[in-house]
Amino acid sequence: xxxxxxxxxxxxxxxxxxxxxxxxxxxxxxxxxxxxxxxxxxxxxxxxxxxxxxxxxxxxxxxxxxxxxxxxxxxxxxxxxxxxxxxxxxxxxxxxxxxxxxxxxxxxxxxxxxxxxxxxxxxxxxxxxxxxxxxxxxxxxxxxxxxxxxxxxxxxxxxxxxxxxxxxxxxxxxxxxxxxxxxxxxxxxxxxxxxxxxxxxxxxxxxxxxxxxxxxxxxxxxxxxxxxxxxxxxxxxxxxxxxxxxxxxxxxxxxxxxxxxxxxxxxxxxxxxxxxxxxxxxxxxxxxxxxxxxxxxxxxxxxxxxxxxxxxxxxxxxxxxxxxxxxxxxxxxxxxxxxxxxxxxxxxxxxxxxxxxxxxxxxxxxxxxxxxxxxxxxxxxxxxxxxxxxxxxxxxxxxxxxxxxxxxxxxxxxxxxxxxxxxxxxxxxxxxxxxxxxxxxxxxxxxxxxxxxxxxxxxxxxxxxxxxxxxxxxxxxxxxxxxxxxxxxxxxxxxxxxxxxxxxxxxxxxxxxxxxxxxxxxxxxxxxxxxxxxxxxxxxxxxxxxxxxxxxx
Length: 553
Hints:
Elements: H1 5-26, E1 51-53, H2 55-63, H3 67-76, E2 83-89, E3 93-98, H4 101-113, E4 127-131, H5 143-161, E5 165-172, H6 177-193, H7 208-221, H8 230-255, E6 262-265, H9 272-283, E7 287-290, E8 293-296, E9 307-310, H10 318-331, E10 336-342, H11 349-358, E11 366-371, E12 374-378, E13 381-382, H12 395-402, H13 404-411, E14 420-423, H14 424-428, H15 435-452, H16 468-478, H17 480-490, H18 494-513, H19 521-545
Helix pairs in contact: 1-3, 2-3, 4-16, 4-19, 5-17, 6-7, 6-8, 7-8, 9-10, 12-13, 15-18, 15-19, 16-18, 16-19, 17-18, 18-19
């Protein structure tokens, strides 16, 4: 069964246009060596019809003819079924107004597929890994992590709906200097709890969360750690703080509706896998020694300079671990690697692309989604601090204040390459000014309509649905699979938040213009069928966004 009637309609239009061109060529009306690539799109203005094509202008140079004349020839030879009206506009655009039968069939398709409506197969089962969040386990997740977390999670859901085999992964940066600082910070706070006087250096983690970790540590060990040697004390604090913080990160993400298929520890790369990865690049001729350090020839692949991978003291750089990590990803057989990074990592992209190429893979095997920063606003003023964390606003603080649904919606309501102003007061407002409330209210209103209806939804008389508001709503429902395709291909979930809002708007317009419960049972049954289809599609898009679809509000 065809799961995307809109794509089928477009394919039929393109096929009919191709046939009309072939006929014109055969009859000698046009001189073309072959049929050029044909595309159709939905015009922005309703008066231009349901679809339009610039085929006549695309063929003009080859045919040596005025594009409007070519359009007239195409129209004269056009025999596509399902077209109610065809016209020519401007310099040669061909506009199509379709019969409504396909919209009625699409309502039936929604009813049949239910939760599967909208799913497509453009991914064809290709294996994709999306790595996101990957924050150091040295403190709570903050607002910046939150946006990347939702972007990664929703991108994964959208790509799954588009037919990709997707795996979500969190890369745990649990090696290196930041873990030593966490150990020192925890030990100092632990000693303070034990009654010792301490002085906090400037470079330790100073947030209240470190005190909480130290309190947990004290509950576990009492004062026993003080009996150990200094290095042993640090080792105990490092491992305890790491496990404690990692567990809290997992809990915060789960509360935010985000679960990972795999948690990958950086520590597993040291030292064997890092050495193996460097050896692979050395064998390919991309590693050289200079000043007792090992360098990667990243400049051969577009980076602005070569990069150190093993320092002169024999210790690996951060890049060395990333090289080993990405080789591991490639060896796991993914067709596409997608990393969701913060804007501060933008300069790191060329060297990682260079790594992928050096290993013998196409540059585009690795794709980076750069997520811009979030500004939290309260009463129009930018927020700066969090009492609890000491230097940032945590993921949990925002989620608890505005709710998970609102937080997820707001984090992805703008393109990832745009800075985001998150208005906390607006996100809590129960009014049409709040976009997530507006969308969820549409779903709840539909439930109320269906629950209070005196008859059942009926598909026998869908031809009665001809009011412009009904047609607009049906077209909006039919475009859902294409919206998934657009979002999956662009890796931009904001297309779906915009679609959810536009669908809610189309439903509210329908509700205000068309009474559902009328004296005409046939019309009421058809409208209820449309309403139920709108409910299903709203539920489907909200599910992809990880947002609840309430039955009442």
